[in-house]
Amino acid sequence: MRVKLVAGNWKMNGTLASSQALVKALLPPLSALKRAHYAVCAPFPYLAAVGQALRGSDVALGAQDVSQFEDGAYTGGVSGAMLADCGCRYVIVGHSERRSVFGEGDETVALKYAQALKHRLTPILCVGETLAERESGVTEEVVGRQLNAVIQRCGLAALAQGVIAYEPVWAIGTGRTATPQQAQAVHSFIRGHVGDRRLAGSLLILYGGSVKANNAAQLFAMADVDGGLIGGASLVADEFVAICSAAQGAKETVKT
Ligand code: PEP
């Protein structure tokens, strides 16, 4: 069975106090939801405090990025070992904002993925096309290329040790969500791209891009959608809990 996962990406938002308050509001309702997995990806400076607030709960801690380097003279970098030290279980790699604003290419993302695995973190690998790419009909080519960079560096089996998040760039933070059918089509392509039936069947593929309480259930009901990576809505406790409840309500998918 693939158990659904909902991860919040808090991005560069909040304060220490607001982060702690958000966890405090999330924990009682989330602790009652046992049929899916949940995580929050906090800003680096708050990881330790958020980890402390999550202690004893089933909600996992995640970070939003990791250095492609092991350690040393990389001012501003945060290594996989440091994230593991702070109690992180997950780390997002290759988010479209990292790719477009910070210029991270496929090879850098693949190196980050490798670092995450090396330090026993579960990478959440973000892939997705821009609006121009979708309109030119190259969505599968772009997503395939982003996946291949990781497969070539880390191997096919490594892909199944992580989580994929399909995040169409045109849907992130725009309020324009992919339809459940559009998401399903790309998720199904991703599973097919992996080739190996057993690996593909165990791969968790999240959808991200303007998921809200009012559209989560329809997205999570699709056969190849195994949960969500949630940006803006993860900052509002009631909204995030409602999205998590939608994952709880959705059926677990039998591996093919
Ligand atoms: C994200 O940043 O990963 C994301 C999905 O953002 P939003 O939910 O705000 O579109």
Write up this protein:
The protein has 256 residues and is an alpha/beta fold. The protein has one domain: TIM Barrel (Alpha-Beta Barrel), CATH 3.20.20. Helices cover 45% and strands 14% of the residues. Helix 5 crosses helix 7. The longest helix has 16 residues. The protein is globular, with a radius of gyration of 17 Å. The termini are close together. The mean pLDDT is 95. The structure holds phosphoenolpyruvate (PEP).
Radius of gyration: 17 Å
Anisotropy-based shape: globular
Largest sheet geometry: 8 strands, parallel, barrel
Q: List segments where confidence is low: pLDDT < 50 over at least 5 consecutive residues.
A: none
CATH superfamily: Aldolase class I
Q: Strand sequence of the main sheet, in spatial order?
A: 1-2-3-4-5-6-7-8
Order of helices and strands: EHEHEHEHHEHHHEHHEHEH
Provide a count of the helices: 12
Helices, strands, pairings?
Blueprint: E1 5-9, H1 16-31, E2 37-41, H2 47-54, E3 60-63, H3 80-85, E4 90-93, H4 96-101, H5 106-118, E5 122-127, H6 131-135, H7 139-154, H8 156-161, E6 163-166, H9 180-194, H10 197-202, E7 204-208, H11 216-220, E8 227-230, H12 237-249
Parallel strand pairs: 1-2, 1-8, 2-3, 3-4, 4-5, 5-6, 6-7, 7-8
Helix pairs in contact: 1-2, 1-12, 5-7, 7-9
This protein binds phosphoenolpyruvate.
Phosphoenolpyruvate binds at residues 9, 167, 172-173, 208-211, 229-233.
